[in-house]
Design brief:
2 domains; Peroxisomal Thiolase, Chain A, domain 1; 27% strand; 13 strands; binds oxa(dethia)-CoA; five-stranded mixed sheet
């Protein structure tokens, strides 16, 4: 019996031109390249130019993904944008991207799960494709976190960057086996008891301002590895796989120490871990598709490879996805 799977046809990404190094940050703040690299693995991040919005980043990533997939924009009937930094409170930034791509049919909407946004968006698109409601989807993660950072707060502003990544997914009939291409399983979780540990101190309904990102870094760190590994074990159990079966581990890129500790706990070999946090910083919902694209472009991820994604962030939200490229 065949099953419908959401198969990745291609991916694309975009990073703003301007690079901000740790050394430059150290000239403005009481911090150092050494502290940032040791505690996070981050060496630099990209910063959107004035007038460059999340929709612009997302559109560029989407165009690159469409070109890589070799499909026409008009064949897309679903766009889900994962972002916490929309152009405006409404309408959804996904609609701006849809319009920029010249698409006037199907549906486009934003999804907000902060750093877990891409995994949540991928799972949502996968469910829509598997029901037959849509046939071809663009799943995008795009962020301009530089706009919500308190640039005087050294405990947060050194951590984040701007960027966008996207994948094109298509509903295809597969055999219903582990060898199938496409999304094999997704697992999403959230727990609002932790909502004050990583949040933005503003919003339309509360303060009528945009606000700035606030984080109890140590508290987030404390929960991260356990939450990440739990939801990956869920993916292994649902598919009868183990760390040995994984070709590539593409985690959310928040902190190299969290990634290393998670991979170590799960017995995932270091050479299977895709790392971009050193060059991109934490780009929230954009970090996974940016890392995916990096490893596809440099030839590491190939058709047929088993790829494990995970993310954890504000909410807390966390999730995993296992897919065959
Ligand atoms: O993507 C969403 C999920 N977010 C995350 O995963 C982030 C999770 N948290 C983290 O990655 C880490 O907690 C941080 C990188 C944010 C901080 O690392 P840490 O090892 O937990 O450091 P800490 O917060 O315990 O701070 C240690 C010291 C403090 O000084 P005292 O109190 O020991 O004197 C901080 O004030 O480091 C100080 N510090 C800094 N020093 C230089 C904090 N930020 C900086 C800085 N430069 N930028």
């Amino acid at each position: 019996m065949t099953v419908t799977r959401s198969v990745v046809l291609g991916c694309g990404s975009y990073l703003p031109e301007q690079i901000l190094t740790n050394a430059e940050l150290a000239t403005r703040l009481d911090t150092s390249d050494e502290w940032i690299v040791q505690r996070t693995g981050i060496r630099q991040r990209h910063i959107a130019a004035a007038g460059e919005f999340t929709s612009h980043l997302g559109t560029k990533a989407a165009l690159a993904a469409l070109a890589h997939a070799g499909v026409d924009a008009q064949s897309i009937d679903l766009i889900i944008l994962a972002t916490s930094t929309p152009d405006n409170t409404f309408p959804a930034t996904a609609v701006a991207i849809q319009n920029a791509l010249g698409i006037h049919h199907g549906a486009a909407f934003d999804l907000q799960a902060v750093c877990s946004g891409f995994v949540f968006a991928l799972a949502t698109a996968d469910n829509f494709l598997r029901t037959g409601a849509f046939k071809r989807a663009l799943v995008i993660g795009a962020e301009t976190f530089s706009r919500i950072l308190d640039w005087n707060d050294r405990t947060t502003c050194v951590l984040f960057g701007d960027g966008a990544g996207a994948v094109v997914l298509e509903a295809r009939q597969e055999a219903g086996e582990l060898a199938d291409r496409g999304v094999l399983t997704t697992h999403l979780r959230s727990d609002g008891r932790h909502k004050s540990k990583l949040y933005v101190d503003g919003g339309p309904s509360s303060t009528q301002t945009v606000g700035h990102l606030r984080m109890e870094g140590r508290e987030v760190f404390k929960h991260a590895v356990g939450m990440i590994t739990d939801v990956i074990v869920d993916a292994f159990n649902a598919t009868g796989t183990s760390a040995a079966d994984i070709d590539w581990f593409v985690p959310h890129q928040a902190n190299k120490r969290i990634i290393d500790a998670s991979a170590h706990k799960l017995h995932i070999a270091p050479e299977k871990v895709v790392l971009t946090v050193d060059r991109h910083g934490n780009t929230s919902a954009a970090s996974i598709p940016l890392a995916l694209c990096t490893a596809v472009t440099d030839g590491r991820i190939e058709t047929g490879d088993l790829v494990l994604l995970e993310a954890m962030g504000g909410g807390f939200t966390w999730g995993s996805a296992l897919l065959r490229w």
